[in-house]
Amino acid sequence: MAGKKSPPKITGLRTLEIYQNDIPPDLDFGDMVAIDTETMGLNPHRDRLCLVQLSGGDGHCHIVHFPQKKYDAPNLIKLLENPNITKLFHFARFDIATLKKYLGASTSPIYCTKIASKLVRTYTDRHGLKNLCDELLGIDISKQQQSSDWGASELKSAQMTYAAGDVLYLHQLRQKLEEMLIREGRKELAEACFAFLPARAELDLKGWPEEDIFSH
Ligand code: MN
Predict the structure, then answer these.
(1) Tens digits of per-residue pLDDT, 102-129?
(2) Is residue 216 in some structural domain?
(3) 193: how many CB neighbours lie within 10 A of its CB?
(4) What mean pLDDT is predicted for residues 129-141?
(5) Is 212 among the domain residues?
């Protein structure tokens, strides 16, 4: 069709599955699942959850679409709260606050590639997902759809592939960051920070979004 653009190809994306409102009960992500969320904005109290993207790090991406402010996702909640499966995020603090607010899920255990990056890549202040993919994996990811309308009832294919890209590389990034954390002797500190993330997200939701309660 004239003028119809095909969605951007994404490095390493093998399949992309879309579900409405929940994942199927039988999805197997192994012991670590990469997760990202898309919302209407950055204020969890105001901006509803629209999408949850998941991947086992094998090139297969699963997207849960919440077209309305109606949340009933028992299978997803079970996965988020499963103590034997690590949930891998980039900037977990925001995602787990949103998942708590809209699904009521207490996400745990958690690994955050942004925290890991801040603890070892002390030579830079660039800790965005795009920066990490570029430097550690040599993969160029597009951030073009980042601020698009995730609340639309029909999502565009460019939005879907963008959303998939946010979970596809987290396992590989974690691998690289783990090596650096061990090299720099900061693995235990990273683990303590990850363990604190549910409390940090709770502080965000309960009225201390900016204030550092540890400061004088
Ligand atoms: Mn995202």
Answers:
(1) 999 999 999 999 999 999 999 999 999 9
(2) no
(3) 18
(4) 96
(5) no
